[in-house]
């Protein structure tokens, strides 16, 4: 009989020559079980998604209850759907007063597209500034602002009027002018292996945006929902004009959002009307799941624990001779190895030892530790032991 593995290679679009290839049967919390019952630890939360763990019971309950009422009803923005309204209100409650209007979409890329369109539409300006080594998604607009010529080149022509400047380079801020609609960044550069801002760079960037009237967009698709030790990373720095969210937002279901002041957002409803259209954006089942996941984060104060848990990993691993450097923020760590080849060897050892990780798009010699925030201290110890064992075997 033809196996699922064979069908995977035959009929699913392939995006890398070496997919991880685990055949997952079931998940629970930090664990994934393959079809032979082997129990893996998800060190990456499905890339920043399962912050409340896989299949959190409260998320499952919210999904089931919503399934009993309705699923898709109508394209976004026409009907009053309780899960959307309740989630938007909850977000408005926890966000600052200039981030009170929420546009729900399907994914991080779509949220980025929406944010860029909104900034252009509101300011009437043609240019966009983003950063080298930044990733914001894979659709044409998001790809245009990606900080890597290698990834962009083959898909040209892309959006005009886009420039990438260097992160943490103060002089580069002069590229922001009164022609700039917006500056977009992930304020803690995730895909370059967790690069933090230095020397008040974010404050200087905010100031330059204020001087020129460019809108500041924070892409918190990866850093949002408790990952870095606060509910959103901007709480540790400064407030943007537009906030972009996705990934962990849906509690395991697909959901994204871009959020701004109502005055800014209202520019999507005239000249032309329907400035952004989405069929499934804000799907009621996803919004119900999202609200439940957010409640779990808030009730269990998982974001407050993230820093302490991250430090446990840091302390246990920082002196290992195979690790050249470790960067940590909340429960998000980047561990640098000697080179890319060593990373791929470690990946195989990890899989053997029941650990699943990933490198960073722009830093292939580094692996991440970003398990669900629900991980317990006993599970942290179990994980650390397996990581140390694997590094010793390297
Ligand atoms: N922004 C950032 C910072 C991301 O990490 C990602 C996904 N890795 C995206 C945007 C795109 O999100 P999606 O894959 O949901 O389109």
Ordered list of secondary-structure elements with their pairings:
Blueprint: H1 4-11, E1 24-28, E2 31-34, E3 39-42, H2 45-48, H3 57-67, H4 82-94, E4 101-105, H5 108-123, E5 127-131, H6 140-144, H7 149-153, E6 162-165, E7 180-185, H8 201-212, E8 215-219, E9 242-245, E10 256-260, H9 262-265, H10 284-299, H11 302-317, E11 325-328, E12 333-336, H12 340-352, E13 355-356, E14 366-369, H13 377-393
Helix pairs in contact: 3-10, 4-10, 11-13
4'-deoxy-4'-aminopyridoxal-5'-phosphate binds at residues 47, 107-109, 112, 135-137, 186, 190, 219, 221-222, 246.
Give an account of the 3D structure.
- By secondary structure, the chain is an alpha/beta fold.
- Helix content is about 35%, strand content about 15%.
- It is built from 13 helices and 14 strands.
- The strands form three sheets. It has a seven-stranded mixed β-sheet with strand order 4-10-9-8-7-5-6, with helices on both faces. The protein has a four-stranded mixed β-sheet with strand order 1-2-3-13. Strands 11-12-14 form a three-stranded antiparallel β-sheet, with helices on one face.
- Helix 3 runs antiparallel to helix 10, helix 4 packs parallel to helix 10 and helix 11 runs parallel beside helix 13.
- The longest helix is centred in the C-terminal third of the chain and has 17 residues.
- The radius of gyration is 21 Å and the shape is globular.
- The two termini are about 35 Å apart.
- The chain binds 4'-deoxy-4'-aminopyridoxal-5'-phosphate.
